[in-house]
Design goal:
Distance between the termini: 119 Å
Mean pLDDT: 86
Order of helices and strands: HHHHHHHHHHHHHHHEEEEEHEEH
Helix content: 55-70%
Number of strands: 7
Number of helices: 17
Low-confidence stretches: 493-521
Largest sheet: 5 strands, antiparallel
Strand content: 5-15%
Shape: elongated
Radius of gyration: 37 Å
Length: 521
């Protein structure tokens, strides 16, 4: 069996080498070239982009020859031609879709529609998601669930390899790693059809890479990248037909890691930026690496290493579910570090939004403190000692460092009613629970019920750089009103000599005001 697969692999490489060179030369001779522009294209000279023709013809021809050899000499794996056609026909549809899009350009919804037809065809041929461990381990999925899952998987995989086809050899090279993983796993699970098709595809890609690696003389085009993505999604489905373990299902997902992460990041970025989801841009992973100063070749080799890492991680899952959690943690950490290093501004803003959401709980708690203070001031004794206690209990957890009252005529106020306030060098009466020099203050004007100004309340803050986690409108409205009322009760403006002369009023303690009124009565 090893000799059979080796012969098929080598034959596929040779066939691909010869056919790719022939297709390239014919395209150059006939002028079928892709002219670079200043947008997302990184190549500087016209290059043919019909490499999918060489790939599809190689894949179809070598597969046909391998099956014919098997039929004639009874060597190799046992499978039916009908089963092979169940993959080849929808793959042919995807190939023509890409070929048409390369020359005439097709809208995203039309492309998705044809890809959905191909995925449905694949499902009808028996290659679909029929069991899912998360859903049920004992019964098959209904078509109402199995078919949509199959379509979603095919759409993701097919377009993922198309999206990363932005550097010479990137999509094809990444696909080669993924194909190798699928081949290894198919040998272990003894699925001969997947083994044969994956070894043929690996040889076709390897031969094509001879002319596609930087500096490329031929591109995959949509006909090639869509075809590779579709074939790999089909092979992954074919290799896990009888899978009931979540690990078996996770292996191809991890093996497809690089293209799937790129498509996920692209969709998320465009959604956060309110840009069309299907409009291309130059912020893919490979574009970011180029912008960070890596050469074309170095960026591709780095992403090859990433693809190979995902392949190794997928193979570790063969040890069972015990490795699944560890693999997911490693991938999560790697993705987070990668996104941070590539400096995607959309994700920095998303992280900031998440931080604001986490802080919202603290803001709510602080707002509740202010509202409780409003109730306490309204029901408590009208004394500055109690006012200061409430102010500190309310404002210290919010991040304020003290409070200061500024009276317009401080010389006329009986200092005894202002305990424990202490006058500072600016003539303000302060209550500080943090002795550091304040860097920022909030001024609230306190008025009596008649609207006449009583004084100004300054809420002091030591660290101006820290965000204010409280509703400022709440402080300026309900809180200011409550403090105004209690200060107005604590001190009363009484014209002490109004009956004797027209001299100015003085402020005396509320207790003295009551005594004077009683004596007058």
């Amino acid at each position: 069996m090893a000799a059979y697969y080796t012969a098929v692999f080598l034959g596929s490489i040779v066939f691909s080498l010869l056919l790719t060179r022939f297709v390239r030369d014919q395209a150059v001779r006939r002028g079928w070239l892709d002219t670079p522009d200043k947008g997302r294209h990184l190549h500087l000279r016209p290059v043919p982009r019909i490499g999918g023709v060489a790939l599809f013809v190689t894949f179809g021809s070598v597969t046909g020859i391998a099956i014919a050899v098997y039929k004639l000499w009874d060597i190799g794996p046992a499978f039916s031609t009908h089963t092979v056609l169940g993959i080849m026909f929808p793959a042919l549809l995807i190939f023509f879709l890409g070929l048409y899009d390369d020359h005439f350009s097709l809208g995203p919804y039309s492309k998705f529609g044809i890809e959905v037809i191909a995925a449905t065809w694949l499902y009808a041929a028996g290659f679909g998601i029929h069991q899912l461990a998360l859903y049920s381990t004992h019964s098959a999925l209904r078509i109402s669930l199995g078919l949509p899952l199959t379509i979603l998987w095919v759409l993701l995989s097919t377009n993922a390899f198309n999206l990363i086809d932005g550097l010479d050899g990137l999509s094809a090279g990444s696909a080669l790693f993924t194909t190798s993983i699928i081949f290894i796993i198919s040998l272990l699970r003894q699925t001969p059809l997947v083994s044969l098709l994956s070894v043929v595809l690996a040889g076709a890609i390897l031969g094509f890479l001879r002319y596609n690696f930087h500096p490329a003389t031929i591109f995959l085009g949509d006909s090639g990248s869509l075809l590779i993505g579709f074939l790999l999604s089909a092979l992954a489905l074919a290799g896990s037909q009888k899978a009931t373990s979540i690990v078996v299902i996770a292996i191809p997902v991890v093996a497809f890691g690089l293209p799937l992460i790129d498509v996920t990041l692209s969709v998320t970025r465009r959604f956060l930026s309110s840009r069309p989801l299907f409009q291309g841009d130059d912020d893919h992973i490979h574009h970011k690496l180029i912008k960070r100063g890596l050469s074309h070749r170095d960026a591709v080799l780095l992403l090859y290493a990433v693809a190979a890492t995902f392949g190794i991680l997928s193979l570790t899952l063969l040890h069972g579910e015990v490795m699944l959690g560890l693999v997911l943690v490693v991938i999560g950490i790697g993705v987070c570090l990668g996104v941070h290093e590539l400096k995607y501004v959309e994700f920095f803003e998303l992280a900031a939004a998440a931080h604001r959401i986490r802080q919202k709980k603290r803001i709510i708690a602080n707002n509740l403190r202010v509202r409780r203070a409003v109730e306490s001031l309204g029901n408590g004794p009208a004394e500055f000692e109690e006012i200061c206690r409430v102010l500190q209990a309310t404002l210290e957890p919010v991040g304020f460092s003290g409070a200061a009252f500024s009276f317009s005529q401080t010389e006329r106020i009986d200092e005894s009613i202002l305990v424990p306030l202490r006058q500072d060098g600016n003539g303000r009466h302060c209550h500080l629970w943090n002795l550091s020099e304040p860097e920022w203050e909030l001024r609230l004007e306190l008025t009596c019920p008649a609207g006449r100004r009583l004084c100004d309340l300054f809420i002091l803050r030591t660290k101006a750089s820290e965000p204010i986690r409280v509703d400022i409108n709440l402080l300026n409205n309900e809180f200011r009103t409550a403090v105004s009322e209690v200060v107005n009760r604590a001190m009363w403006l009484v014209p002490l000599a109004s009956r004797a002369s027209e001299r100015s009023s003085v402020l005396v303690p509320a207790a003295q005001v009551s005594g004077i009124n009683g004596a007058a009565d």
